[in-house]
Amino acid sequence: RLAPGGAHEQQTHRQTIDLPHRHGEAGIAGHGGGAVAFTGEVVAFAADRPCHAGGGRHQCIKLVGGEGGIDAFRAGQPARIAAGDNVLVLAGDGQGAAVSAAAAAHVAVTFIYMGQPAPAATNNLIVLGADGFPADELGFLAGLAAGAASRSEVVAAVVSLLDVSGRAFDSGFQNGMRVACARCKYIQIDTRIYAGLDVQQALLIRLREDEKVDTLWVAPGAGGDWLLEGCAQQGCSIVTNGKPAAKLEPAVAAVVALRPDLPLTAILDALWEERAPVVPVMLNAASGALQLQPLGARAALTTGDVSVVMDFANRLASGELATGVDPATGLPY
């Protein structure tokens, strides 16, 4: 089922199921089907001086307000600048305008922003991941793990196809799954139709008993966390986006880790060493912000599976391998 290098010639079967969607269902980072979001914290440090004798840059990073988000940023920013901190980092969606205004008012301070929508970068405002996480790469990594983990060779994914990013999640997932399991049947579950608990339970029965689905992934923002949990309880292996909820951990075959802190660390290191950071910075596999972490719960992934899957994941990060998805359309090319 897995072979390093070479294209698979076998055609993957595909089937579509409409999944009931609950109005107002919101996901968060760390849940398998949640929308990717930043948590909203502010850090500050002085790039031109040690915080204390023998202290390195990592000892100088201070939380300013923790989870207080933009209010903590506005309240804490003057004090931090007055104290001599000349690098401020803000993570939190919807806060780009405030960061842009602060950067314009304090041109001697370097601001780094992670969040959506992204403001325009300036000489002292670095925008990390302006386009967010690439949907095709996230889907591809999830598909690699799901294809490798499936023993029934029937894999399902909850993906909305209403926009380009949804189609890119779907196309990337299929292409990654095909690399790992050319014979796997793919069932795409759509979220455009919603219904009550009875319909949801019937769908679970159909997937597990009739279709023999044994591995499931939910794309960010697609809804369906309830299906991920239900399938896991019934013996499915699952692939999650970011750290899974504790109740899901026993079923997790792999995690597509969302690590914006890694490219951020590279930027901070450059500033600390008085080097110009390489910008713009993408939140992708190449920057280390997207990583596949096989866990192999329930023996879903053997040592051999992990070795080959990680080989392909590393090729994607190095640029040797592409997802095969057109970013303009979200469709395979």
Helix and strand pattern: EEHEHEHEEHEHEHEHEEHEH
Q: How many H/I helical runs? A: 9
Q: What structural category characterises the helix and strand content?
A: alpha/beta
Number of strands: 12
Please outline the major beta sheet. Answer: 7 strands, mixed
Relative helix content: 25-40%
- The low-confidence parts are 1-67
User: How big is the Rg?
Assistant: 21 Å
Approximate strand percentage: 15-25%
The average pLDDT score comes to 78
Question: How would you describe this protein?
Answer:
The protein is α/β, with parallel strands linked by helices and 333 residues long. Helix content is 33%, strand content 17%. It has nine helices and twelve strands. It has helices spanning 57-60, 69-82, 96-105, 135-149, 164-180, 197-210, 225-233, 261-272, 303-318; strands at residues 14-18, 41-45, 62-63, 87-91, 110-114, 125-127, 154-158, 185-190, 215-218, 237-241, 252-258, 290-294. It has a seven-stranded mixed β-sheet with strand order 1-8-7-9-10-11-12, sandwiched between helices. Helix 4 (135-149) runs parallel beside helix 5 and helix 4 (135-149) packs antiparallel against helix 9. It is elongated and about 65 Å long.
Quickly list its features:
single chain, 333 residues, alpha/beta, seven-stranded mixed sheet, 12 strands, 17% strand, elongated, disordered N terminus
List strands and helices in order, with pairings:
Blueprint (H helix, E strand, L loop, with lengths): L13 E5 L22 E5 L11 H4 L1 E2 L5 H14 L4 E5 L4 H10 L4 E5 L10 E3 L7 H15 L4 E5 L5 H17 L4 E6 L6 H14 L4 E4 L6 H9 L3 E5 L10 E7 L2 H12 L17 E5 L8 H16 L15
Parallel strand pairs: 1-8, 4-5, 5-6, 7-8, 7-9, 9-10, 10-11
Antiparallel strand pairs: 2-3, 2-4, 11-12
Helix pairs in contact: 4-5, 4-9
